[in-house]
Known about the structure:
The complex is a heterodimer.
Chain A: H1 2-50
Chain B: H1 3-6, H2 10-41, H3 43-51, H4 53-74, H5 78-84, H6 87-107, H7 121-128, H8 140-159, H9 164-177, H10 180-208, H11 213-239, H12 243-250, H13 252-301, H14 305-320
Helix pairs in contact in B: 2-10, 2-11, 2-13, 2-14, 3-6, 3-13, 4-5, 4-8, 4-13, 5-7, 6-10, 7-8, 10-11, 11-13, 12-13
Amino acid sequence: MNTERRKKTRGFVLLLPLVTALPVAAAMTWMALRYGNLIHKLISIVIKMAVTA
Amino acid sequence: MSRKKNNPGRLSHCCALLAAVLLTTTLTMTLLGGAVLHGLTSQELHIKAATAEKSIDAQMRHISEYIGELAEDYSFSAQEATNVVSTDELRELNRKMAIWWTRIVNDGVLDEMPEWSPGKMSIAVTRSLDEDRVPENMTRDDVTAEVTRLIQERIGKITMSVRSALIRRGFQFLRKRVDPADAARFLKQGTIVSGIASLALAGMILLLTGKRARASLRYFGAAMAGAGIACLFSGLLIRSAGIQTMIQDVSDVLAVQMAYILNTVTTQVIIGISILLAGGIFCLILDIRGTDARRGENNGKKTDHSQDSIDEDTGAAAAGGNG
């Protein structure tokens, strides 16, 4: 029982970084999916307009 | 006051976990904000990128090709004209360009754009010009002046690949609304505030876990390693945008300079991520080992301390939704 709980706690502790990183990663993914194309097009236009040689 | 009373309860663990999530966000913002700030405003970095050997070589190659094209059109010796453009001169012009550019971003000052001085170019062109092939409507001096002007213009464009007229107009447009120097200052202050918020959140975690460093290790570790993972993810996301390829398609000189800046900034971010991951994993291992040691001790002695350990574990498990 004790070993089982120890394993459970270890697993939980090692998974904690993923839990804390999840909101940031989710926000980034959402932004990339929502505005990724728009940002990509804007950057592409700006580069074509601004870069000379 | 009994020892049990000092142990953080489930609510404290939940709040500490929430603070760890916030700490992850602020640490990520600090690291990424610092990298962006460094990439945009560091004069030293821009000078190094502009005067890097690869960049100068690419510029020299372009200039030679262009002089070659002009030599075919106007019949003069391309070799003699190319010899006038020295790499040292080009390096110095690039250095001046980098200072000119970073002064706009850092100080909000738009100075006169540096120009390449033709020096002996007109002599080299005049000396090697084929008299018989000078266009009828032009004199020898006209051709020399035209070629010198075109070369000077081209060198200006190559050393400042971004259209200067666009920078000038953009600067004037922005200037009416916001001072570019203020924007850089805002970014700098934002990064500092984010760093201070990280310290405050770390203090809050310590308070929430009853000022017990050992109990707070789990949350510090989670936040640090979490920030490392989040930064790694953001970096991969930005890299997958393919901005480098877009620039490469338009200008290989700018692509070389951008690659230098990106490599330096990426190295800085990778070092930051490594420190965060190493620190985070170290804290988590200390926490696991501490918990194991406490349990082992408790199993042996069967004292009241076991209750403390159980309380702590159930609290932590509750915070993670495993309780």
